[in-house]
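We emphasize that the prediction below concerns an isolated chain of 404 residues; any contacts that depend on oligomerization or on bound cofactors are therefore not represented. The input was used exactly as deposited, without trimming of termini.
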Amino acid sequence: MKAIEKTVEVTPVGEQHPALLIHVRPLTPDGFSSFGSINQNPNAAIIDGKLITRPDTKANRSGPGWQCWSPIAESILVTGGIVGLVETESVSGYITIPGMERERSPEIQQPLDGEIVLVVAPGKNPNNSEELPDASLAETFLIPQNTQVTLNPGIWHYASLAVNKPFGEKTTYVFHVDPRGEATESPRPGWIPFSKEQSLELFIKKLPEGTEGWITQERPGHLGRRRDEKFSEWNGRYDSGNWRLVNVDQNDRLWTIEEIVFNVYAESYAAYFQDHPKEADWIVNNFSHAYELDEYPVPVERATDLYRTYNQPGIPNQFHAVALNYALMYLLNKPFKGNKPLRVYPADEGKPPPEGEKWHPGRIPCLPKYLELINNLPDVSRWYSDTTTIEHFYQATKALQVKK
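Result of the prediction step, given as a token string:
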């Protein structure tokens, strides 16, 4: 999963495409032509000379992380059409797309105060009520702020997703459509399930920012259960908002947690199990998935969910089991077949070691291509002693930075 110089990256995850990467496509006329066009119309957010704003009334349609007001005006861009407004929260991590909708008329979309990701799939006949969207044909496009696109009649699409803002902040986009042209109806309502019992789960991540404007103050290494205490200490010393805890290598390159987990950790786990195939087979044949802490159990359906136990208040960060699960399931195509979870963690003091102690990150060699990026960083090892492991990559790159 090599990082690309794009703003966001989207990965479908599931039985049909377990390891397929789909990058957000650049919005070009040729690239988008199968689904619609990029417009030069008058600003879609200007109605009667005024900029559309969010109504004070309650939204009349909503879903996970978004709400919609429609209609709020008559459209001058779509004959017989109306104008609606959607407010959507910025997302990252795993996003489940439950289904799609489509119209017989064109639909115009324009983000007003940020970027959105538009998820689409081709449609064959908008008049065929039996037709279902095909998740395997889904595409994603990044729509820049104030850029207007038109979806062709019959194109399947989901509610557009806000990206590249702090988690939970909102982006608003306006749409124009002829409500008489709705091609489908659904008891859910609106969203039509995918064909062939498919599911579509996207993994959206923001790729690395720079370190300009920040100074590395210290390399704190392992925090564990001291995390909340240290955060409180740094809030008092530097004021909240003037410091950040990030991962930066010796070349001043910032690494996202997604890259650390799904690149550094998962690729290193995959390389280890390729060299130790009997161990890999023993794990997948006897266990349902790996997890870390007994007090924070992870259900099997969230075995590769990074955000369930990462950066959550009061919960120690846990993600190496996510990387191990991802490596076996998707990089090595070895599905788990057992009925009980495997605890992958160092031995607790005074207690027998868990069955998965052997595979905790303080024992897994880091791939040389990543290890060479931290050779000149300070040795911050504490609970582990081997500085050639994936655990050392994570702890050595950890940096407390303050604003210049």
